[in-house]
Amino acid sequence: MGSKSESRRNAPDKHNWHAADIEDTLKELDVRKENGLTDDEAQARLKHYGPNQLRVSESRPWWRILLGQFHSIVIYLLGGAAVLAFATGRLPEGFAVLAVLLVNTAIGFFSEWKAVRSMAALRRLGEHMTRVRREGREREIAASEIVPGDIVLLEAGDLVPADLRLLEAEHLRVNEAPLTGESVPVSKLTDALAVDTDLADRNNMLYKGTSIADGTAVGAAAATGSETELGRVSALAESAEGTVTPLQQRLDQLGRRLAVLTIFIAIVVAAVGFLVREQEAALVIETALALGVAAIPEGLPIVATIALARGMYLMAARNALVNQLTAVETLGATRVIFSDKTGTLTENRMRLQKIITPTGELVLGENETGEALADKEGIRRALEVGVLCNGASLDQQQGEDNPRGDPTEVALLKGGKDLGLERESLLEERPEVRVEQFEPRLKKMATFHRDDGQFYVAVKGAPEAVLEVCSEIVTEDTTEALDDETRQQWIERANQLAGEGLRLLAMAEKRTDTEDADPYKGLCFLGLAGLLDPPRENVKEAIDICQAAGIRVEMVTGDQVETATAIARAVGIVGGKDDPETVSMLGRDIGSPDDIDEDQQEKIYHANIFARVSPEQKLDLVSIYQNRGEIVAMTGDGVNDAPALKKADIGIAMGKRGTEAAKQVADMVLKDDAFETIVAAVRQGRVIFGNIRKSVVFMLTTNVAEVLAVAVAIGVGWPLPLLPLQILYLNVLTDVFPALALGLGPASGNEMEEPPRSPRESVLTRAHWMEISGFAAILAVCVLSALLLGEHWLGLTELEAVTVSFLTLAFGKLWFTFVLRSPKSPILLNEITRNPWVWGALALCIALLAAAAYLPVLSDLLRTQPLGWQPWLLILAMSVIPLLAGQIVREIQRRRMSE
């Protein structure tokens, strides 16, 4: 047998197994169903194909996380400043800059330590035992030892160990939600299918990672390991390129601009110092170092990291676990949310919604009781059939139901129980004596029950299948013949209800004298049962908030388009039945992002429901929207969602029902699986970005003031108003604490009333730069004025005058914090004055400045001098001027907005 199979060894890899009949499948795999492989052939194939395991990418090691903290232009500039300081013998400055680098690295490293992610969860799906047939005997082997050609035997509860072509299927239903997104178990057959059959519709195949919900199966392993559909999804997830978050892009862009500015200023000042003023090299180097330190917002990485880390903490309190710091802010920029249906928008549990009979209709609510059936005999009879003709159970454990079985049958049992029809009680009156299991070909099932010397037959199934074998229909008082016209009317009624997203079952009954009677002849049609996976509570309100905030919510599901559309209407993604903006699209119509034309792109952009979507199509959909410049969030829970979760700007996995594979590649995991948690996270992301923007404006305004003051002084030959270590002291301490307080500010409550900012919008817009330039110029003028007035008016020494200019800048920075209120806020009571972090930061900074002036060791290091009361009055007067000017500007802006 081994030699015969050599020429076929590579055949199974890319074969359309669903299109081959059973005989050709066995011939292609070179195996007999009755005997299976021999041990020798199995070992040879295992050696050739390798273990039935998925390739798993290596976990991100700790040292890479550590190195990642240094990947920033600002960090590079700081590193250069430290090298220059050490090279010129300025050890205090060098160690101070180095301390800044270490603090920022430590914060980022420990915040992201838990973000180590891998695809190891995919491998766990294969770590189980399975039954195979080898050398004519059944035996149990590890799933990792399955090879192409193995005959695999499965029953209810088993995990499918490989991709199998079905050879035998007895009442087989399979849970394929982890792979295809199908919300209910899928019935399986063995007939060959068309080559172009979609993955979700290949009902003669079993796929690795899915599970048997009901029935038994015998299948031939057609693909193992990385050649399975699950393996292809794993490969997609590994190859999908993660995107750089908007905040990373903007901060890097800002850092590059600062780098260019710093280098330019340093070159100009060096040229002026050497060529024009013929200053000593030591002074020129000191000046260049001072300018370099002044131009770099040393506190920015620390402030951004801590603000994001606090955002992670606040989101965790709201059941959203964020794996990566920068993902916190990216949520605030999200413009499109691709949401899964089952479990995210819905409760992920089927519920009996309606019972429609020829004699009446009952719409079930959460609090319905048995009184609802008191005068509705026809409805009672239909529901009794659903409860009796049932293979599920509601086992009681500690007073609560522990349902087992098909979700639709569980829903029927729960619906019956809520209305006072419990299966156990009904079986006491009518004991079950025979069961005809659900047959996919017939699309119905039947049970026989002993009843007053006769046998009562209960039948349920697909409406068209049950109506076809019914000859009577129930009426108010009796029954009458079911004619073709009435039958067609009920089929049309069922199709209409299915269009509303209901999963329909038809109920029928009859009585017979013999237990061996054909259950599917001479039936009396009783009515329809409509079941629905209902929308989650509060999800519609959450979607309304998103849409009001300019965020598009679109459904992407593996389920049928009718079901998806009904849920989309119920939760408010689209309008009513006749809403022209309701546009659905099948996954196979999406196309590759590299091949679609403009017309197809527009169709995709206008669609808001994507149904029957495969993993590749989800990945393509994300890429198409990203190519358009959108910031995309994708929700998912299954293995099939992993590639798209990784590719999206924000991948959001479900924490309760999500597979480990989805959780590992996601940027955020929802502990409660609730869509409203996403909305809360988006709101927090917007708050964080707004706070970081305020912090950046604060730091750059004061840093530009430092650069202007030093550059002007060196240009006109004045003493340096600020020394390098003084600047570093201000930037790292008296800048960081107020900036951090601004970064931790509370929400204003209006974050979700504005549309998302443009993906191309920088951290600082032109208006922000104009504001920074104006306020920095005012602050620089005040610093230089304090220097000159102290030296020439008060008669201070050069070091005393520099101390005055140093403290003027320091206090001017502190008071400038209050200028950063919103123009819409009043001057006294606003988001800044109500922020307790701001007052704490100011108190701490005032203490640090007092220490800088009067603490001997620190004052010697900073080269400051103790001052009398007159210099302090000068400092106070000069430092308050920027605050007064800023508040005047804000009041003018506020009045213009109110007009």
UniProtKB/TrEMBL annotation:
Keywords: ATP-binding, Cell membrane, Magnesium, Membrane, Nucleotide-binding, Phosphoprotein, Translocase, Transmembrane, Transmembrane helix. It is a multi-pass membrane protein. It comes from the Bacteria. One of its GO terms (cellular component) is plasma membrane. It holds the Pfam family Hydrolase_3. Signal peptide: none annotated. One of its GO terms (molecular function) is ATP hydrolysis activity. Belongs to the cation transport ATPase (P-type) (TC 3.A.3) family. Type IIA subfamily. This is Cation-transporting P-type ATPase. The lineage of its organism: Bacteria, Pseudomonadati, Pseudomonadota, Gammaproteobacteria, Oceanospirillales.
